[in-house]
Each structure stands twice: as structure tokens, then as C-alpha cells.
Amino acid sequence: MKGKKFFYIIIIMYLTTLISTYIFVNNYVIAKDNITNSNDYYNLGKQSSEEGNYDNAINYYKKALELEPDNENILYDLGSIYAFQNKNDLAIETFKLALKINPNHFKSCNHLGYIYLINDNYDLALEYYEKAIQIAPEDSEPYFNIGIVYKNKGIKDLAIKYLTKAKNLNPDLTQIINLQLDKLK
After folding, report:
1. Per-residue exposure over 57-75, b if at least 16 CB sit within 10 Å of its own CB, e if not
2. What is the pTM of this model?
């Protein structure tokens, strides 16, 4: 008899969990359909992006931008997805829109520099990395990336200068930077 009671308790707990999950999911779907502000769409975009559902994320970010077209952070996140998907023209356009709204948006400058770097457009990469340094001179990332640009251009002394500056700003990068410096010897 005790075994039967235990079995029924387990079944009731299981059904309760199923019903709770169903109610939660349905409330979430209903809530998604009743969104009226950009922040909710933005958060859904972030969540979709984190889940790897980039097409949904793009759609949510675009809906957020319809409600708040001058939000550089939404534009940055949208541009980041485009960059991740190798839609570099869309990424560049989107990051430049973010910079039009806020010329001091560090992440957009840095990401533009990266897109230009990986596409071997070193002069434009340098332009955006230098701007990123003007915005956040204590951030090591643009210094590191400028060092890589100069390394790729074969200008060893400037590569060493910028890589060393990045290492001084962020000692956690020492191992990675030392690998790059060893390649310059």
C-alpha cells in the first residue's frame, strides 16, 4: 500500500510541474504578444541571442528600434549579430548608425575596427581603434588590436609598442601578448 501512495504522490508532483510549466509558457507567450516598449523587445533580443537564435534576436532588436530608433546600445547589439553572421556590410552600417547617435560609443568603434582588421582594411581599422582609445584610454583591447594591425602590416616597432601598452594595461593578457611579441622577433 505504501508503494502505491508513493507512486500517486510522484504522479501528482509530475502533473503539477507540467501544469505549472504550461501556465508559465502560456503567460510568457501572451506577454510577448502584448509588448509595447523597446526595453522588453531588447531583452527578448538579448535572450534570443544568448540562446543562439539570431534570427529571432534580429527581429526583436528591429522591433525595439522601431520604438526607440536612437538607442545606440540596441544598434550595437544588432550590429554584433550581423558581424557574428559575417554580414559585415550590415554590421558596419549598424555600428555607424550607433556612432551617429553617440560618437563616443566605445564598443561600436572597437567592433568596427575589428571588422576592418579581419577584412585587411588596416587604415580604417586603425582609425576606429584610435577613436576607441580616445574614448577609453585605459581599455587594453584597442591597443592590442592596433598592435595586431601593425604586426600584419609588418611594422614591428609600432606593433611592439601597442602590444606592450596593452599588456601593461591588462596583465591578464600577458600570455597571449607574449605569443604575439615572440612572433615579431
Report:
1. bbebbebbbebeeebbbbb
2. 0.79
